[in-house]
Design goal:
This protein has 299 residues and is α/β, with parallel strands linked by helices. Helices cover 36% and strands 9% of the residues. The protein has helices spanning 7-21, 43-46, 65-73, 96-105, 136-141, 151-154, 166-183, 221-241, 249-252, 283-298; strands at 37-41, 78-80, 115-119, 188-192, 205-207, 215-217, 244-246. The strands form 2 sheets. The chain has a 5-stranded parallel sheet with strand order 2-1-3-4-7, with helices on both faces. A two-stranded antiparallel sheet has the order 5-6. Strand 5 (205-207) and strand 6 form a beta hairpin. Helix 1 crosses helix 7 (166-183), helix 3 (65-73) packs across helix 10 and helix 7 (166-183) crosses helix 8. The protein is globular.
Length: 299
């Protein structure tokens, strides 16, 4: 059950009724006042992982972009419900609905809520395979023998990017968006995109090892196509659902993995955060995202 008096089920049921009957929402139970800022997302939001625990823990880096955003916005109150490994709706980790439930139980959604951000989708299953992006790392991205070309999706070694679309993305997040719109009617809801990992539209991808020995995959088109399609799907889904999309690719162009000036961590790369979460933004990369959110929504 979602939060107070089944608010989640109530909102979803009323949304379904409105679609069928063409009527609006009925009067809901009294809602809490809400928190000014609410953050939902995955490891690109939380930017930390507890490697010593077998359980999914919603740990957060002190330099994650939400933490830096709080320093810029200085909201009266906020809640960061993001969780490493989170997905829209792919088990076994936290899902977007579970994070929204956590926020609801903390009284985060209400008329005082000004901004709700979501950064999600990279960890999900898409299309006809059960493969997710991070499971594809070894079987596809780091596989120099078989490569990670377009055929990898059909072979089940790569997330099936062919199943990624704006319409499907919108459908999968629509219940949570409906809930937030209803119980936080004054909030801007923002779907935050992912930063640049690799340049778009190319075949070669690269991962920095120790800042001096890059791993180069010359046949990496499937991974790059997946990232490109997630970016397009997020933009299209936001438009379909009437929420905002924040592009973080543009402000991070040219600073992906293996660039001359990376803003994402490699593996023990001294040029970024040597102990930072690999393949995720450095503190500087997160500062760029935090400033992008602040400039558009936080003033």
């Amino acid at each position: 059950m979602f939060g107070r008096s089944g608010r989640w089920l109530c909102a979803v049921a009323m949304a379904a009724t409105a679609v069928v009957t063409g009527t609006g929402f009925a009067t809901a139970d009294p809602a809490p006042e809400g928190k000014e800022l609410v953050v939902l997302g995955d490891s690109y939001t939380a930017n930390k992982w507890d490697f010593l625990s077998e359980e999914a823990k919603c740990v957060h880096s002190d330099t994650s972009w939400p933490q830096q955003l709080v320093g810029l916005m200085r909201p009266a109150d906020y809640l960061d419900a993001s969780c490493p490994g989170a997905s829209i709706d792919t088990p076994p980790g936290y899902t977007l609905a579970m994070e929204a439930q956590k926020a609801d139980k903390a009284g985060a959604f209400g008329p005082r809520t000004k901004l709700v951000t979501m950064q999600i989708g990279l960890n999900d299953r898409w299309g006809d395979t059960d493969m997710i992006m991070w499971w594809s790392l070894q079987k596809c991205i780091l596989n120099l023998i078989d490569g990670c070309g377009p055929e990898a999706a059909e072979q089940g070694r790569m997330t099936d990017y062919r199943g990624v679309s704006g319409a499907v993305f919108a459908q999968r997040i629509s219940n949570v968006v409906t809930y937030i719109k209803y119980y936080a009617p004054n909030a801007r809801i923002v779907l935050v995109g992912y930063p640049e990992l690799f340049p778009s539209g190319q075949n070669t991808l690269c991962i920095n090892l120790f800042g001096v020995a890059p791993f180069i995959q010359p046949r990496g088109a499937a991974a790059i196509e997946y990232l490109d399609r997630i970016d397009r799907a997020q933009r299209e889904a936001a438009a379909l659902l009437g929420i905002d999309f924040l592009d973080t690719r543009t402000p991070t162009l040219g600073h992906g993995l293996c660039s001359a000036d990376p803003w994402l961590n490699g593996v023990l790369d001294y040029r970024t955060d040597i102990g930072g979460l690999p393949f995720h933004p450095s503190a500087h990369g997160d500062a760029v995202v935090a400033n992008a959110v602040y400039e558009r929504y936080g003033r």
